[in-house]
Structure formats: C-alpha cells, structure tokens
C-alpha cells in the first residue's frame, strides 16, 4: 500500500485537551473549514503545477433529494409510542413553546407518595427495625431494663379495621392520632433523607441519559444484500421494548420507489435490540445484534432466511459489537467491565483487552468500543478518552495509541469520543483501507493507522446532538469522491465528500452538506386536529436510532437510498440523486425568488425574520428546492391513516392504580392473572395498567384514554355536549363505536324530542331524591335524563315506579354485581353486549348491520382487515406463547378502542352518579 | 440585525445564536448568498459586552466569512483580500492566524508573490509581547516564507541550467540564487526543530542542502526527522531517509537498518517489496529469514491481498527456501498465521474468484497454499483442477513440487 508522500504541515505537541493557548490548536486543517479543501503545499512551484481544479460541483454535481423530506417506508407499528423525557421536563426553565400536548413530567411529590405507599417496607423497614425494641407488637410480654416499651397492640387493632388508603376524612382513633402527631416528624425526617438521596441519584442517571444515550451507538438499522442485486433485507427492531428483530425483504429498482416484499420475518428476543451490524464476507452474510446483556449472531442464507448461530450473554452489559470485514464469522464485542473480546461462533471467545480504567486519563464512563483494522489480527479498542491499536496475538496491554483526546488533535476541554469506526473496504476505488473515523461531540477526525495520533483531517460538524451513526459509501462513479454519512441522535444528517486513494491523504473535496430531517416531512402530511398534529410531530421528531444507505444496482445516474429508523420504530427513506448543479452555472439568478417557508415551524425564527429590517434577507432561493409530488403526499397520507389507528400511548406520568394492599387481598383465581399481567408488562417494558390485573373495577373511564384520530370520540362527545346532545351521543356510542354516517340526521330529531321531554321532568323527578343536586350542570342533567330514558326502556325498569328508579340505580351502582364482573373481561363481554343490543326492541334505531362491525373491532381475530389488527396476532404470538397472556394483551388493546360499548346499562347508569359525592367537595 | 422589541424574552444572545445557526444551516445547504446576508447581521455579535464572547464572535466571523467567500460564485480574490485585511486588524490575537490562512488561500490560487508579501508583512508585525502560541505561529509563517523562497530558488536553478549565460551573468544569478537559499534555509531549519509533520519543508531544505554539497547536513536533518522521539512516527521521514541514502549509494546494511524500522512501523508499505529484495540478496542468514517475514507481513493486510508481485515473490522465495531446507523459517512465520490465513487467503470462494479474475495470481497463490497447507488444501485443489484444462504442463510441475515439499508432510516426518 502506498502512503501519502506529502502531508500537511502541522505541529505535534502533546498535552492535555483544551489548552486555549496550545500551539497544537493551530493544527492547520482545523483552522477554518475552507482550508480543509486545500491540498498540502508541494515542493514544486505552484505555478508549475497549479491547484486550479474544477470545483466539485461543476465536476460531479450535487446530491439532491427527490422530496423535501424522507418518506415513510413501512407502516407504523401497532404499538403506541410516547416521546422520551426531555431536558425541559427536568428543568422547567424558560417559557413553554408548545402550550398544548401532554408532555412527560415528573411530579416529585406524587412520586414520593407512590413510593411510600408501594414500597412501604423499603421506606420504613430500617426505621422499623431500629424501633422494634421499643414497641410491643403483640408478642408475649417484652420488657427490657432501662427501656420504655410501648404497647402497639391496640394501635394495630385500630389499623386492622377497614382503613381506606389516603382518605383524609377516614375515621381516626385517638390513639392513632396521638401516634401520628408524636411519631410523624421523626418518621418523616428519616424517610425524607433517604428518599432525597435516591431521588437525586435517579435524577442524575436520567440527566446523564439525556446528555448522551450511548446505548444506540452504531445504530440498529442495517442492510443485508441478497443473492440478487436488486433484492435485500432491512434488519431493524420494533415493538415497544425494541425486542422484536425484523428481517424485511425489500426490492430495489433503479428508478422507482423501493418496495417491501411481504411481511417481515420476526424474531422475538429477550431484551431490547440496541445495535444491528451486518457484513457480507466471501458471500457469507452475517447479522450481529447487541442487546443490553446479550449479543447474538445470525447467518442469512442465500434465500434470505436468518439462522441463529450463537448467543453470548454478558453480565455487566455489552456496549459495542462489530463484525470483521476480513474473516467470515469473526466479531469483536466489548462489555462495561472494560473487557474486549474476539468472538467467533466456531472458536468461542478470546479476551484481548481488559482494563476497567480508561486509556488516557480517568473518565467515569464504562463505555467501550472495538472495531477491526486493515490487519485482520489487529483491533482498535476505544473508550471515551482514546483509541488503541491492539494485536490479538500479543499480550493484552501492549499496543500503541491511535488517537487520544489531547492537544495533538487540538481537542477542546470536555471533548470525548462517541464513535470510532473503521472505514476500510477492500474496494480499490475506495479510500485507503487504513482509515478510521472518530467522532466526538464537537468534531470528526480521520486517522490513518500508519500515522497514529496525527489526524489526517478534522472537521467541526456542529451537530446539535451526539453523532452516533456513520457510514461510508462507495463512490457513485469511478473517480468521484466518496460520500460519508453522519447522523446525530436528534435526526440531523451530514454528508461529507471525501477523496484520496491509498496514495494521497484523505481530504474534503466539497463543503459538507446537510440532508433533510424526518421533521422536514411534516408539510407533506395533511393538516390534522391539534392532538393529531402533536402526535405526528412527536413521532417525526423521535430520535434517530438507525441509518443505512443502499446503492441500487445498475442505475443510469448515480443514486442512493437512505433508510432511517427512529426511536418510535418508524422506517423512513429518501432517494438522493447526484445531479448536475444548475444553480452554480447561472449564478446570476441568485437574487430572485423568495423562500421563507424554510423555518415556518419555529416561532423564534419567525419572529427573527419579522424584526430584521433588511428586505433582501430572504432573497436567497434554495436552488435545490423540490416540492411534494402527489405520489409522495399519498404515501404520507396512507401512513398517517394507519398511525392514527394506533391507540395513543398512556401518558407516562399516570401513577399505577394498584398497591401492595390491592395485590395481597386478591382472590385466588385472580392471582394467576395478575402475575401474568405483571410479567407481560415487564417484558414489554411498560407500565402495569389496570387492564393487566384482570377485571376492571366499575369506575368511570378516564376520557384521556379515548382514541383520537379519524374517530375522535372525545371531541365528538364534547361537541355533542355543547350542543346539548350529550345523551344522544352517549346512547349512540353504546350501540357500537362505528356509527354509519347517516345516523346523525335521524339522531337530531330524537334529540330534540328527548331533550324537551327530559328538561320538563328533571327537576320534578330528582329534586326530592338528593338535595345536593338541586342545581345540576346542564351536562349532568342531560346524562341523567338519558339514563332515565334508558331505564324506562329496560324491561325490568318498566315495573318500577319512576320515583324509585334513582334509588335503585344508586343501589345497583354500589352492588358488586356478578354482571359487572363478567362484563369487564373482554371475552364474555362481547356476546353479552351484542345479545343485549339485538334482543332489545327499543334499540331498533341502531341498524342491525352494525353488530358485525362492533364484533370485528373488538374481536382479536386475525381475519379482520385493518392493518392494526392483522399485526396484533403476529406480534402477540411472538411475544408470548402463553394463551393466558394473549387474552390480557387483547383486553389491553381493545379496552382502549371500545370503552363506551363495554358498559352494560346498569354500569352506564351508575357512572355519573358515582361522581356525585365528589361534587360536594 | 436589530434586537427584537416586539417579542419578550428574545434577547441579544439569543438573536445572535439564532443568526449563527442560520448561517451554518445555509452553509450546509450550500446557499452562499443567503449565508452572506445573514453574516452581515451577525456583526452585532461584536457589540457583546463580554470580551470573551466578542473574541469567539470574531473567530466565527472569520471562519464563516472566509468559507463563504471561498465558495461564493461571485466572490473573487480581491473580495477575499479586502475581507481578510479588515479581519486582521479587528483583533490583535487573530492577526497572525488570519495572515497565515490568507497566505494559504493565495497560494492555493497560485498567487505566490501576493502570498509572499503577506507572509512578510505578518512576520514583521509586532504588538507588545508575544505569547508562546504566537511565537510558534510566527515560526510557521517563517517556514512558509522559506518554502516560497525555495520555490524562487528552484525556479532560478532551472533557469540557470537551461540558458547558457556568460560568466558574469552566471555568477550574478548564482549569487542571487544563493541569497534565496540562505533566506529559506534559516527559516526552514528553525521549524524542523519543533516536533511536527513537516514533509514539504524537510524535502525542500534537503534538496537545497544537497545542491550545495552539504551531504552530511542533509543526512543529519533527515536522521533527526526520522528518529527524534518527540516527533510523531511519520513513515515519510523514514522513506525520505532511505531514498537519500539510496541515492548516496550507502552500504546495504545501512539501507536495511533504515527499512527494518519502517517495517516495524508500516509493514504494509509498498517499499517493503524492495526491502525483501535487499534482504534476499544479503549474505546473512538472519536477513534472509527476515525476507520471508517481510513478505508474510505485507500479505497480512487487507489492502495487499491481491498484490500479485508480493505473491510472486513469496512463491518464488518459498520454493527457494524449501530447496535450501530452511523449513523452520517457514514454520515460524506460518505458526502465527495458520489459524486465519486459510480463510483469509485460501478459501474456496477466493479460489473461484481469483481464478475468474486473475489466473496468474491464482496460480501463484495455489502454489503457496500447496506448500503451506499441503495438497489437500481447497484452494490448491480447485486451481489445479481448473488449471489442468488450460496449462497442463505448469500445473504438473507445480503439483510435483508440492507433493515433494510442503510443510505439512515435513512436519509428519
């Protein structure tokens, strides 16, 4: 191999990073961005060999996208997604830019309350042990010399009675009162101190995670080329816990859009997939996956079937995995313990390096990374402070540093390595096979392993989020520069154009360019109602967790497909073309059009635009501006339709509505179900919800759980209530959730009738029953009226005198009826509500054809046509082979969709009444 | 850009940072005109009360402004010069840095005289006491000036050799040339004492020294550049030294010792094949043994797997060694490679691929694989089977040799 025979002059002065006056900070290529485009000075006179070269743009053109933003490639998954914690959730500083939209918040007081309730043994246990000597809890006589022993027997007796939790108006005995007054301060202080520490620790880890989520380093989206050049597979994780590995076959074509072929092959894993790596060496395609505590390798056959080879478990957690580009079936894995191993499914593990300390200076991070080099027996071992070249055959602690965070590379203070990647390929058209890419939070470095410590190139990437993804692509044309893609976790993409074969040093040949973000696609979607819009925005702003570019075969003009995976599990793509630049040729047309729509979504930017006094400010056109073509817009619309069918995620701050107390006093038969529910929730990594614990208590459904989107029930209900038609709406909902469009007109007539009917009667009917309800709100009155209508239509109610119906309803509400228990389990509930509906002659206004619709919506059958439902059974069978769990899963998903139709008349009637006592407070 | 009055909460710092983001965004979209318009508004950052922030703003303006002017389709050298001259005089700390970058720009445009004038001006600039870093940068400026002096020197030298001039004119021209040499050598000599990568400076300095017959001085410079531990291990330093010694017709032992160090730093360098030939010719057994290791090491690297010369050398040398019965040399080199070379070089897939793409390479590799892995090796079997149809004779001799000499069978014996 050739070594570049003329390098750019630079100082080499070792020292710590961040010396403001260090001469090392005058590393020539780092001074200014344009100097990186200059070639090192030659020893020949420049006029003999001038560097006047045609610029990159006129020579090769510029990479441009077809559409203004990436397009959705696969349908959104069946699971809802909730945006992660943001810094604003923890800091509460500055003004809120988005006033609406439920954002995750941490309510510390509530959290502490929950903790004290749910984990009372942890919170009070140690203190209890300390005080145990001084309390007699009912043991046979306990008396110690010099100790006051308090008899707590009576106190326990008082407590063992029915004590509603957390109710401030509950009965307190004098003994309890005295105890809490005297002991409260002591108990409180102890627990506060302990909890304060815990909370601080929690906040610290959360904050660290926010600053850098290192788990997704390397990216979880990869491409496996198939046997035919135009077919390949995308490998990526889905599911709420990212524990489903998908192998999706994709057909590429030189001109038209890529096509997903059939459903993906799915593999269920024990943990979340953090990183996916693929390599094809000597026609053997391997896929390596890193999870938190496991690493696994699959071999992909020529037909595209993945076959598992081996699984490795790491106790302390794996941080990086890479596949050898030289030898098939060889991997490098690193773990948090500081160990780096060479792993091959045939020969097992070989430890290469183990050091809990970091390489150059002390850094608390336990992140380690390893990759291969141009020599198949040499590895790079990286941590946050440096990168070392290590020989597999030699002793573990020898080897020289390839890079260190220090003055040699003119690093800043606090700069740390985030990614170290080997860029070598065996292709002769590529760069020298000895190059390594090193990314920090500020800059990008290219290093040649033959000249350690001196970066060949340095570029300040100015990405807002840590760059954790990178990929070098083959040159689009022989002799053309190689595109290097760099992806920040926030979704920002950069493309660099590198040149330099084995004989010359790597160099930028054109100014780097940015590529459209996922959130740039927002204008391509139709405008939605506020919450729908918020959902879409959150979804498009989800962090980028995977990036892979594929070059379709045999294209007439250079092109590439860029696939992106977001944390919400969405796969988007965009097609880039290397096209001749028309703007560069006619530079005169620069000051023409006006493009101010670029930053329309940021209020700050807008205000800035308005206040700036120069009229020519926005006179610069975007020469590469493309508009949304109808096909792209249709693609977006289709995707959005499926997305809106996904039930929204529960807000992450919802406190769990169960406690130890609740778990302990369960009936025997329920216990198994609860356990299953708990297990299911744990595998999915979500909150345990009421639905997991079996029967729903007959309480009112929180309106927030209702889906919005094409059938936005909350809005409908509110609208109806404003118009005074809430009762009718409610009734129509009970008939089935999918009401034909024709219905409202017929409804209208009935509404007028019934409202006039009820408004006449309400006061006279109810005033004598409950004095608190003398002036009920119109909404309330309406619902009551409708109930009275309902009741009167039921067979049993006809025989009851009108004035006694309310009392009866109250009684029914309190009664833990057999009916309600059976109704809340989804299996038995469906038929009951259906039979009720069809057998009731008074309900004839509901068309009979509606019943089957209700059934398909509720039923977990795979035969239903909607995309959402057809995906459920698949994932479910993968999630758990346990039929018991599957029923829980369904009750979960369907409970959200079909809440209104679930309640039997008795329950529905009890709902508003249950609220009554609260109105007094 | 005026500070916004209509909106509460947007202050000076925020507008400045928004503006900076706008400029960066425009640069990344290659919208040079747009970026330049935003830059005009960014000048407000220079009014910051905080002097440190002002300093950063100044650097940003230079960095972004120079990049914009470098790429802007309507920009020309005059605009760039005007911008650079203005920027130099805004802050004291940046004068030298900007001057040097300005000179590099001019040099890139082929305007050597302008660049020279610029560097000269920067060198004579004085403002109070210089900080350590400024002293370093002055050295670098002087070195670049030295390089430009060298350019003139080498131009004069070619002129002198081309035209036949009378005695007087020649001596005047020689003197002129010599004065350039003196100017250049002083500056270049200074910079190469400081640790760093100074390839163009060292090369030009050595060339001038050689011209004036100062071989010892040149050798000293190159030796220091290659062997000073404070310098980064730059492979070029060793190559320059080797080439110099080779031109000087230094003894082979000397050349071998230089390349031996290069072999340790960069075993994959193409000059290693030359090194192998040197070692092979050497009479010492130790050198001959190293000759095999050098070849093995070259072929270890993924960039050299299809280097046909290296394979040819290896096949030939292995044959020679086997005939000379130095079996243990082969075994020694092979022991650290036997677990991965078979898959790396001699797999069935590679046999098919090599045979299809380059038959000569396949034959050389097959011969080597036969010696190293015996006649049962997949690579050997495939190529000999395929080759039998085409080159019956040579395959037969190859097979014969492998049957007799291969390290597998010899181990069994």
UniProtKB/TrEMBL annotation, chain A:
- Annotated TAF1C beta-propeller domain residues: 287-424
Q: Which residues form the TAF1C helical bundle domain?
A: 534-760
Segments of skewed composition (Pro residues): 695-705
Give the CC-aspect GO terms.
Answer: fibrillar center; nucleoplasm; RNA polymerase transcription factor SL1 complex
Composition-biased stretches (Basic residues): 740-751
Q: What name is this protein filed under?
A: TATA-box binding protein associated factor, RNA polymerase I subunit C
Query: What Pfam families does the entry give?
Result: TAF1C_beta-prop, TAF1C_C, TAF1C_HB
User: TAF1C C-terminal domain location, by residue?
Assistant: 786-840, 883-921
List the biased-composition ranges (Polar residues). Answer: 847-879
Q: Which Gene3D superfamilies match?
A: YVTN repeat-like/Quinoprotein amine dehydrogenase (2.130.10.10)
A single Gene Ontology MF term assigned here is: RNA polymerase I core promoter sequence-specific DNA binding
Question: What residue spans carry the region label Disordered?
Answer: 587-625, 686-711, 729-802, 817-921
TrEMBL record, chain B:
Q: Record's InterPro entries? A: SL1/TIF-IB_Component (IPR052669), TAF1A (IPR039495)
Q: Which GO terms describe its cellular component?
A: RNA polymerase I transcription regulator complex
Q: Which GO terms describe its biological process?
A: transcription by RNA polymerase I
Q: What is this protein called in UniProt? A: TATA-box binding protein associated factor, RNA polymerase I subunit A
Taxonomy, top ranks, is: Eukaryota, Metazoa, Chordata, Craniata, Vertebrata
Q: Which gene specifies this protein's sequence? A: LOC114049390
